[in-house]
Design a protein that fits this description.
The complex is a heterodimer. Chain A folds into two domains: 87 residues, NADH-ubiquinone/plastoquinone oxidoreductase chain 6, subunit NuoJ (Four Helix Bundle (Hemerythrin (Met), subunit A)); 49 residues. By secondary structure, chain A is mainly alpha-helical. In chain A, α1 runs antiparallel to α2 and α2 packs antiparallel against α3. The longest helix of chain A has 26 residues. Chain A has seven helices and no strands. By secondary structure, chain B is mostly helical. In chain B, α2 runs antiparallel to α3. The mean pLDDT of chain B is 89. Chain B has three helices and no strands. The radius of gyration of chain B is 17 Å and the shape is elongated. Classes of the chains: A mainly alpha, B mainly alpha. At the A-B interface, α1, α2, α3, α4 and α5 of A face α1, α2 and α3 of B.
C-alpha cells in the first residue's frame, strides 16, 4: 500500500511537470488529467472514497472537459513558445524551489496538532464515509452549503453574461 | 502511509503549480497550473483530516471543488472574451489594465 502511494505520487508529480513542459495546451490538459487520476487513487488509499469520486467526476470529468472545449473553440495552433534559461526563468525556478523547501521544512518540523476529533477510521467505516459527509453537510455545515450553492448560481449567470457577444 | 509524506507531495505539487504560473505565457496553461495548486491544497486537507481524526477537512474539500468549478467556468469565459478582442493567448500582450 505504501509502495502504491509512492508510485502514484511520483506519477502525479511527473505528469504535473508535464503540464509545464508540453508545448501544446491539449497535451498539457491530458497530462493534468493523468495527475488528477493519480491523486484520486491516493484519496482511495487514504479511505476518503467520496473525495476520490468527486475528484474524478468533477475535476477530470467536468473541469478538464471545459478546458478542452475552450481549447477546441479557440482553435489554437501551438505557438512554439520556448523556455530559455535567462535570468527571469532562473529567478522563477529559485522561487519555486525555495517555496518547496520552506513548506516541506515546515511539514518536516514539529507540527503541533490540536485535540483529536471523534472520527477515527473505525468510526468512519462504521457509518460509511459518504453517509457521514451527508449528515455533516446538511447538519453542521448547512449554512456554508447554502452559500456555496448561491455562489455556483452566480458563477453560472456570470459565465453566460461574459460569454455573450453583445449585451443589449 | 505517513502524513508527512502526503504533505510533502502536496508541497511539491503546489510548487510545480507556482512554477507554471511564473514560467508559462499561455493563459490556458497558467489556468491549469492554478487548478494544480488547488489540488495540492486538497491533498494537504485530506492529510491533516486523517491525522486529526476529523471530518471537517473532507467537507472543506467539497467546498474547494465547488469554488474551483465556479472559478474555471468564469475564468474560461473571460479568456474566451479576451481572445475575441485581442486574438492572442499570450499574457504578455494583455496590457489593457497596465498603467
Amino acid at each position: 500500500m505504501l509502495l502504491t502511494f509512492y508510485i502514484l505520487g511520483t506519477v502525479s508529480v511527473l505528469s504535473a511537470l508535464g503540464v509545464l513542459v508540453c508545448r501544446s495546451p491539449v497535451y498539457s490538459a491530458m497530462s493534468l488529467v493523468c495527475s488528477f487520476f493519480c491523486l484520486g487513487g491516493i484519496y482511495i488509499l487514504m479511505n476518503v472514497e467520496f473525495v476520490a469520486v468527486i475528484q474524478i467526476l468533477v475535476y477530470a470529468g467536468a473541469i478538464l472537459v471545459l478546458f478542452l472545449f475552450v481549447i477546441m473553440l479557440l482553435n489554437i495552433v501551438p505557438t512554439g513558445e520556448s523556455v530559455r534559461f535567462n535570468l527571469p526563468v532562473l529567478i522563477a525556478f529559485g522561487i519555486a524551489v525555495g517555496l518547496f523547501a520552506q513548506i516541506s521544512g515546515l511539514f518536516l518540523g514539529d507540527i503541533q496538532f490540536g485535540p483529536k476529533d471523534v472520527y477515527t477510521a473505525e468510526a468512519i467505516s462504521e457509518e460509511g464515509s459518504i453517509g457521514l459527509i451527508g449528515r455533516l453537510l446538511y447538519g453542521e455545515f448547512v449554512l456554508p452549503f447554502e452559500a456555496i450553492s448561491i455562489l455556483l448560481l452566480v458563477a453560472v449567470i456570470g459565465a453566460v453574461i461574459i460569454g455573450k457577444r453583445r449585451l443589449n | 502511509m505517513p502524513t508527512t509524506h502526503v504533505l510533502i507531495l502536496s508541497a511539491a505539487l503546489f510548487s510545480i503549480g507556482v512554477l507554471g504560473v511564473m514560467l508559462r505565457r499561455n493563459v490556458i496553461v497558467i489556468f491549469m497550473s492554478i487548478e494544480l495548486m488547488l489540488n495540492a491544497v486538497n491533498l494537504s486537507f485530506v492529510g491533516f483530516a486523517r491525522e486529526m481524526d476529523s471530518m471537517t477537512g473532507v467537507i472543506f474539500i467539497f467546498f474547494i471543488i465547488v469554488v474551483a468549478a465556479a472559478e474555471a467556468v468564469v475564468g474560461l469565459s473571460i479568456i474566451l472574451s479576451i481572445y475575441r478582442n485581442r486574438q492572442t493567448l499570450n499574457v504578455d500582450e494583455y496590457n489593457l489594465l497596465k498603467w
